[in-house]
Amino acid sequence: MQSLQVDVAILGSGTAGLSAYRAATQAGKRAVMIENGPYGTTCARVGCMPSKLLIAAAESAQHIRESAPFGVHSSSPEINGREVMDRVRRERDRFVNFVIDDIESFPEADRLRGHARFIEPHLIQVDDHTQVRAANMVIATGSRPNVPAPFQAAGDRLVINDDVFEWDELPQSVAVFGPGVIGLELGQALHRLGVNIRLFGRGGLVGPLQDEAIRQYAEHTFAEEFPLHADAQVEDIRREQDQVVIRFYHPDRARVIEERFDYLLAATGRRPNVDQLNIEAAGLKLDTQGVPEFDSSTLQCVNQDGTPSHIFISGDANNDKPLLHEASDEGRIAGHNAAHFPQVNPGHRRTPISVVFSDPQLAMAGETLPQLKQRLSESQLAIGEVSFENQGRSRVMRINKGLLRVYADKSTGQLLGMEMVGPRAEHIAHLLAWSIQQQLTIKQLLEMPFYHPVIEEGVRTALRDVAHQLIQ
């Protein structure tokens, strides 16, 4: 049994773990990074990058289908599923290898392989080969798909997003459960690649949307393209031979029906990988989900007696903001604070921003409407709106489906948040997130240049709508 004594032990080598390791070593501390699974981040292996590769193929097919209104005629796209999936995997592996090369550039002595579990607050056991005693620690163990128990009835026809990218060929049909970010992106992409899909949800949620007006617009738009039940009533899931049979209430037919699918894709959220760490031995206070309680500004965990801990938690492991850029920031903050403990300082946090790469895209930035309604009175909150259905450049390109709502403080005129379903939302969200972080006012934004004809002119229309409501 090998024994190591280090300043900072980092559990996990994903985006948050890598950032934490860099921050700790840059502070001159001896750090080790412990990884139980394959190297390569969630984003590169099974998240952001392979999903966007599948979406890119789907968009290519859709452009061919939608060319006729421009006077450009072609036959229906011939989709070779094997070639689609081959490119997805080849490019995915390329991104993963970049991450692996980065990790393997770290000193070998700083990289431990194996399953880590707490023995006591400062002591970690790695498999049966190493014990690591660390002054301070960062938990950055990421997350994994959450699969509800009823889905197990599908047997080996049950898949998660990780499995999709390992398909050699596209299936004929897939039942997708969960119209969140993953389900919406993969479901629409598979549909556009010729797969028969039906998307089931609960509670009416669509993506991460919080503004009811935007949510309703998005639900209606997506339901026009493929079957979407945002609040499905599913009565039974069972396996019959090589298919999954879903029994559910069909609102349009006003009766219960059964449909058969080759696979059931569970896209029903993710759960933090903290339940196999023997986390109780760390002496931390846990929430009802078994996740350590922590300060979101410092990422510092809380001991059972309520005192600040020497352990920090970052990235998907803390179940707060499961986004790559947030994981990177959190890892840096946690690693820095672990290296300088007991001197712990709040880290710089950026304006929240999220994007769903569906078509039309979904985007959010700043504070959400429910958050603002809790913080501001009705007389303080101003909401500006624009539809993209008749917006000039959007109509020229036939991508004129969308709705943008922006939120501002009536008394200060400051832009506070936005939510959107529509064209090029990923770019508009960035522009407005930058503006929110700079604490710009509606007046200042309207003084900015707007070229013609561009989709961003729609932003100006929404800002003008807010400007009419501001206290002069």
UniProtKB/TrEMBL annotation:
Amino acids binding NAD(+): G178, P179, G180, V181, I182, G183, L184, E185, G269
Membrane-spanning intervals of the chain: none
Domain FAD/NAD(P)-binding, chain residue ranges per copy: 7-331
Catalytic residues (UniProt): H452
Keyword entries, A-Z: FAD, Flavoprotein, NAD, Nucleotide-binding
Pfam families for this protein: Pyr_redox_2, Pyr_redox_dim
Note on cofactor: Binds 1 FAD per subunit.
Chain sites annotated for binding FAD: K52, T141, G142, S143, D316
Domain (Pyridine nucleotide-disulphide oxidoreductase dimerisation) ranges: 354-462
Disulfide linkage: C43-C48
InterPro entries named in the record: FAD/NAD-bd_sf (IPR036188), FAD/NAD-binding_dom (IPR023753), FAD/NAD-linked_Rdtase_dimer_sf (IPR016156), Mn/Fe_SOD_N_sf (IPR036324), Pyr_nuc-diS_OxRdtase (IPR001100), Pyr_nucl-diS_OxRdtase_dimer (IPR004099)
One function term, GO molecular function aspect: flavin adenine dinucleotide binding
Cofactor(s) required, per the database record: FAD
Highest taxon above the source species: Bacteria
UniProt similarity note: Belongs to the class-I pyridine nucleotide-disulfide oxidoreductase family.
The protein, known as: Dihydrolipoyl dehydrogenase
Species, as recorded: Terasakiispira papahanaumokuakeensis
Taxonomic lineage from the root: Bacteria, Pseudomonadati, Pseudomonadota, Gammaproteobacteria, Oceanospirillales
